[in-house]
Fold this sequence. Notes:
The protein has a domain at 1-77 and 151-157 and 181-231: 3-Layer(aba) Sandwich (Rossmann fold), CATH 3.40.50.300. Helix content is 35%, strand content 27%. It contains ten helices and ten strands. 39% of the residues are buried.
Amino acid sequence: xxxxxxxxxxxxxxxxxxxxxxxxxxxxxxxxxxxxxxxxxxxxxxxxxxxxxxxxxxxxxxxxxxxxxxxxxxxxxxxxxxxxxxxxxxxxxxxxxxxxxxxxxxxxxxxxxxxxxxxxxxxxxxxxxxxxxxxxxxxxxxxxxxxxxxxxxxxxxxxxxxxxxxxxxxxxxxxxxxxxxxxxxxxxxxxxxxxxxxxxxxxxxxxxxxxxxxxxxxxxxxxxxxxxxxx
Length: 231
Ligand code: ATP
């Protein structure tokens, strides 16, 4: 459903992705791992049309979206939840949610409150009164209300307390159970191992490992070789 074929992406003259190929199939949760600066965020931005991809192809549900404007790509149902979360701090939780509802979306406000009881409790609070974890939940909830066909998540657990990370893991597992495909950038291996079907590891803008969750877990040398500094 989402396929990157040998993509090369740049910031100005800086050649950051050097031939990345990966795919996410229907219903899969796939992680993108790698040390800081490996090119994980740039891969998500490339899919969204936010950086300059000069070679290779990005295909989503059979359509070549390489080089398209971000709003065209979003309209096809690709939703990015960026690291900075992008919620409106002067609006309440509920207002943040309501402006994201797409008519006919498979998830409506009541569904979201069932998935995220914490957001229901906090629905009258303004965005700037939320903890980091609550902001992250709100950002994911908003993306879901927009009825995406794939979710791209950039380090959703970064900087969060373990108890909140557990809540995010539960939400990721629920999203996977619903069959919504996810490409997850994550540094927390516990999170990745808890929810993913497959993993890719990036190093200096190239995929250096690709394997199933079982193969990855069975071979600790992989994480020692590629992830030791960030794990
Ligand atoms: P991190 O976990 O630190 O965010 P990452 O794997 O997501 O790491 P990217 O953010 O994709 O890495 O960055 C890949 C490379 O691109 C890094 O060398 C980074 O310095 C560079 N880079 C990122 N954003 C820009 C930018 N806006 N302009 C120029 N170079 C950039």
